[in-house]
Design a protein that fits this description.
The chain is an alpha/beta fold. It has two domains: 136 residues, Tick-borne Encephalitis virus Glycoprotein, domain 1, CATH 2.60.98; 155 residues, Collagenase (Catalytic Domain) (3-Layer(aba) Sandwich), CATH 3.40.390. It has six helices and 17 strands.
Length: 380
């Protein structure tokens, strides 16, 4: 038997220290404020369009549908005396909802599970009136359809199953001049036939294949999130937040929710958010927002009781035209729904670059495939 030869393993040389070192993984917790200091409330008055059950703050109404776990969307097809629905349109909507459900699973890191069911054809809502007399044929965009939604809920089959009342989508019959795609706009806490008016969506069956628009409307009725684009009664032409949130640009190439909306929805934990307050110079590590892990995804600098500077890392998810970038924006809840409660400050696309906003400096210090090291200097 030949003698055994000892084998010597030479360790590989590490030329660059990993970014995920203990100093960053530990979050330097002593340097940061309690995250509750960054849970700003919405302070806006009623908007010109009517009282709105949507917010950019942490004061989400208790009557909202669950934001984590299973939530059920009830599909209620509607027919009128002159307009039929047809089973095919309902089937197309169900196919679209498969895409939407997967989108919310990704955005919530598998914490939110959107489920749905359609009423049997015998339980579809039947109106003796015409589509025009009900107000949805030939209607102008953003017309308040709360009265129509209430009428539909009153005609919907009653149910003792609480899942049937969490979210409701009223599917209007297809008609070329019907442009209805909206969550119920008027805030009303009273139950309508066991369902909450503000948890409803009205959608023309002409648009059932547009998954991005449906996800945007669920951002309203489910997450109670505000529009981030400019509404016409506040002016025109102002692009507050662009492509960076589906509530700003539903048709954008990378539809997703910002870290603020994800944290507010309970999809990011407090351990994944840095809250910065007061005079401080701190170095921190951020993983890309799309990465599913327990590491930090967002840093927030408290500016006032109603405003924050938010910092997060973005990379392409659906398109390929954005390199990894550091995104910086302000959340200010003194701006109403449709008047820019989120406002882009800028992006930092190269290591070593700074971005200044008022008296705060954000520096992209270094990055690799795992994320970025960011320096925040807040002198006040």
């Amino acid at each position: 038997m030949p003698p055994t030869t000892a084998q010597t393993t030479i360790p590989s040389t590490i030329t660059n220290a990993p970014l995920l070192s203990d100093v960053f993984a530990s979050r330097q917790s002593a340097a940061f404020a309690d995250t509750s200091r960054c849970e700003i409330d919405d302070i806006t008055p009623d908007s010109p369009g009517g009282s709105i059950a949507r917010t950019s703050g942490f004061d989400i109404p208790a009557e909202a549908a669950p934001l984590v776990g299973d939530v059920w969307l009830r599909i209620v097809p509607v027919e009128t005396s002159d307009l039929e629905m047809g089973r095919k349109r309902v089937e197309l909507l169900e196919e679209t909802l498969e895409i939407v459900s997967e989108f919310f699973r990704e955005q919530s890191y598998d914490l939110a599970n959107l489920l749905y069911f359609s009423e049997e054809e015998s339980d579809w809502v039947q109106f003796s009136e015409t589509g025009e007399s009900l107000g949805f044929v030939g209607s102008e965009p953003k017309k308040d359809m709360a009265a129509l939604m209430e009428a539909i809920l009153l005609e919907t089959r009653p149910s003792e199953d609480s899942r049937d009342t969490q979210l409701v989508l009223a599917l209007l019959p297809p008609e070329p001049s019907s442009t209805v795609e909206q969550a119920t706009r008027r805030f009303q806490l009273d139950l309508v036939n066991g369902m909450r008016l503000e948890n409803g969506i009205l959608m023309s069956a002409s648009f059932v294949t547009n998954w991005k628009v449906l996800a945007h409307e669920l951002g309203h009725s489910w997450l109670r999130s505000e529009d981030l684009y400019q509404h016409s009664y506040f002016g025109s032409g102002q692009d507050f937040f662009g492509r960076w949130d589906i509530m700003s640009m539903a048709s954008g190439p990378d539809p997703e929710f910002s870290s603020w909306f994800r944290w507010r929805s309970g999809w990011l934990s407090d351990d994944q958010v840095y809250c910065i307050e007061g005079a401080l110079e701190v170095e921190l590590f951020l993983q890309p927002l799309q990465t599913k892990s327990g590491l930090a995804k967002s840093a927030m600098v408290r500016l006032s009781d109603h405003s924050l500077l938010v910092i997060e890392v973005r990379e392409h998810q659906y398109s390929r035209d954005i390199a990894e970038t550091l995104l910086v924006y302000v959340v200010d809840t003194s701006f109403e729904h449709g008047n820019g409660p989120f406002r882009l400050v800028g992006t930092i696309d190269e290591d070593g670059q700074d971005l200044d906003w008022e008296d705060v400096t954000i520096r992209r210090s270094q990055s690799d495939s795992s994320g970025m090291v960011v320096t925040v200097i807040s002198p006040t």
